[in-house]
Prior knowledge:
- The structure is a single chain.
- The chain is an alpha/beta fold and 428 residues long.
- The protein is 37% helix and 18% strand.
- It has 13 helices and 15 strands.
- It has a five-stranded parallel β-sheet with strand order 5-2-1-9-15.
- A hairpin with a 3-residue loop joins strand 11 and strand 12.
- The longest helix has 37 residues.
Amino acid sequence: MWLPIRLEGETWEEMAARDSCFSSGHQAIDIVVVGGGVAGLATALALHRIGLKTLVLERSDCLRASGTALILWDNAWKALDALGVADTLRADYCLLDGRSSMYCLESRCVERSVLLETLAKALPDGSIRFNSKLVSINKEAGSPFTTLELADRTFITAKIVIGCDGVNSVVAPWIGLEAAKPSGRVAIRGMATLTEGHRYTVEKKMVQIVGKEVRAGFIPCTDQKVYWFITRKSQPQDADVSRDPEILRCAALEAVRDFPGPIGEFIKSSPADTLSLADIKVRWFWPWEWDSKAKGRGSVTLLGDALHPMMPDLGQGASSAMEDAVVLARCLSHLNLNFENINWREKQERRIEECFREYAAARKWRVLGISGGAFVAGNVMDGYSSFLRFLREWAWLPFISMSYITYFAASDCGNLPLQSTPTHAHQI
């Protein structure tokens, strides 16, 4: 049985009485996923694979393509295999060279918009509700349900809420987490479209160039598209620069004006709608506080950037979010809860809380390791002191960097249990 939408000012008894008037075909919501990005869609798909219906609330009017591209390491492809969509993406994106001889890992650079579309297409029809911006969360004492208020004044009740709404999450503060902190760095990104006859031969590997207080790099996605990025210190004018793509393009070109190679040409040949500038934000957890904070609150939890935003220097943000999704779905599959149960009470909610504790424990050292590793990598690569420059040039780049990255990529989040009975598509 699905839950009804609760109207403003309505008591739980009034809601139940009104719901009895609905026809047997009426549908409401058991599990709500907040956010239609990579984390949210991967979570919805993982739950779909184990037979659980979800509704994804996305604040935009369509799938958001911001972010340009993502490098997906071997651990991400393991997660995509578990979700059942990896081969669809493999067909369109080149395998990158430069793989570690120790690990022989798979890595490809994938357009974010294509990844989102692939995940969305694998979901049942009506799984995503657009123009659904969450503004507040409420839970009445003694009730096992959580109420979500949307910007259009719609109120939705749910048995489980999973916050996948990114670094500026609305769900995270309700759980009790502090806002993510600025790292003092920004990332400028874009996607170059190469025309026939361009003068640069792009090898199928990631290239990075380190300058004074700025770092740039590029990775081919396909034969015609190259993803590029720049990281540098935050500047007071960044807020104004980010509003105009052409001003942003000029800022990017200025940042790399002394750099060798084709990075400048890639910036010039990038369509304006692929250019973006974003603050890099992080949230730190000490190991002793992870268990109490990462599990969430009641039947509400978080994953991906909503829980653990991290530095981008290992390229593990999206990859770790998809790992989260697979692990959380597997934990929920162990419960064997009957969501059709009309007598949903605190007993069921306590079982969900225990499941979320299991999920947090399973992800603890993996997430803390990646977050700490990305922090180290970022500070070494972007460090400005004489010691860090010496470390970077004589140890990190020639001997450590590649094996360091592949160490974190060489992980397998595991499979999802097979669903014997296909889940039926639900209508919103």
